[in-house]
């Protein structure tokens, strides 16, 4: 009986220390990490979750993955609030707006939950012990170079993006515009239009642009849904190869468009790597070990010529693990 009581007491002690922010995990309890995606079910974030899950398994970490049904801070905020109420040791998140997500993340920080920003960031530099993302400025510049090559260095080029206030795509637009200004005098940048991350809206914008500028030479779509929608419109308008396109991301629909000649180049990020590194940094933060404030991850230019190579196949996004 005494032994049983002692065992019970010991177990109670551990449990009461384990849960809630700030636990070093030293109490032998498994570290609990939550991942809040920018958009549930979308191949970029699902591939990210696969990388995070594999790393969590390797490190013996409990990982809970959730995401909003739209890339929208009003839908992401209640998810963050319920995650914070569950008091995980760490939170990995892709904030859906640079301003609107500051308040809910400040709450999490005040509860001493270790915050790691994956993919996107917020404007408040004190939020996020580590920020892990593609170098999107560089990615935007690479898109400008690839598109300039495709259109022979001359003509009108358009950008289709999601929404202003999304750190990643905003940086891609800036990288693209700066590169054109600096090195592609023959290109005329006709500006950016926003699809609100909706495939149908991206198609509508592409059709309107084709109607307005019959001499449009190229388009840069800054993310998966914008690219898929713009590509569908080009295909339906019979503009295959006539209006060139470069798209960010490499989801299954985009890879099919690449093989069908709708898009000429894709810029594939490494979402699985971002997810895995996010879990590593979260564990380091919870254990009070050194955390790397900024981790840029690589990107690969995918074309019809290299898409079937094994090393390129590895970077294509998946809908599930
Ligand atoms: O391009 C990715 C991501 O990097 C961006 O922040 C939001 O859009 C995607 O998820 C693709 O849809």
Automatic annotation (TrEMBL):
It is found in: Cell envelope. SUPFAM superfamilies: Periplasmic binding protein-like I (SSF53822). CDD domains: PBP1_ABC_sugar_binding-like. Keywords: Signal. The keyword Signal applies. Residues 1-21 form the signal peptide. Belongs to the bacterial solute-binding protein 2 family. PANTHER family: D-ALLOSE-BINDING PERIPLASMIC PROTEIN-RELATED (PTHR46847). This is Substrate-binding domain-containing protein.
